[in-house]
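OP here, attaching both records as promised.
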Amino acid sequence: MTVTRAHARACGADREPSVTSVTPVTAPPGLHGVDGADRCILALDLGTTTGWALRGHDGLITSGTVSFRPGRFDGGGMRYLRFTNWLTEIDRLSGPVAAIWFEEVRRHAGTDASHIYGGLMATLTAWAELRGVPYQGVPVGTIKRHAAGKGNADKAAMVAAVRARGFSPADDNEADAIAILLWAIETNGGVA
């Protein structure tokens, strides 16, 4: 996937999404399409700076971050409209997204973070329901335990664990998204 400044503006992002990792990965049988082709799957760490990781049809993993911070003159709903546009562009550019996994956060440090997460999750689930794309939240402890071996691993441990797997995340948001994607691939979405 090529991300250009024009693409970032079309998605309404305040800055160009960072694309930092492209690594071939072989998926277990359950995440393959019926015709044997790899299905395109997306993993998200929802927040003002959303981390994302995408396993394309070719088996390559692409990841990065995108900011949904509202501009000075934006209304309260613009963050969610930009997120919807971004999801639509990812779907269009990658071929159809077959499944989405996201970090399921049950406790937030602050009220604003909680509201933003809830709005992004509502936008994501509505977008997926409209298109018939299956989605699933993955508990934070499950992701951390799979990636770093501890259900309460801190941000630095998560970044280090993802780097040990051969990726180069720019920050903890991207590292979390990569960890979610790897969990989905390696556990067949929690089934294996």
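Record two, same layout:
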Amino acid sequence: MSMSIWRAGAAALALAGLVTGGQAWAAGPCSPSPAHEAFDVQGLKSELMVTALSCGAQDKYNNFVMKFRTKLASEEHVLNGYFSSTYGRNAQRQHDDYITQLANVQSERGLKSGTAFCQQRLSMFDEVTELETAADLSSYAQAKDILQPASYLTCTAPNRPAATSRTRSTGRTTTTRRTVRS
């Protein structure tokens, strides 16, 4: 990976983190996105793909994809819905950017790990081979330390605090309560 691509990826990651963090802070109570499971599964799939390409385990990756093709397709459908509802006309571009950033951050971690990367990650293929159901795959993906380029949260708008105002004629302070409904 060239240094300029790495810098661009790092800048995008930093920006995504700032934007996402700022939205989460400003918006109030946040919880994982309804598409959280789909992001976990996509992260695992990408991690296995990076491992396969870096460590010469393409056959193991292909076996994984064949075994869980229905679950992988289902979670891809959920991600498409998430990006469509979140980004509208820019959904495909944002989805593509996410997939690219995901592979880039995972590849970068592999580069930093050096020769230990394959030793650490190839065992994941043995672990996913032992999984039997789609639910097992989801649980496994959630439990693994899979690097993601950003956090995807659903946040609700906070209630506005009481607004205070001072009337000019009396100098009294009045409190007005406004309720924000979603």
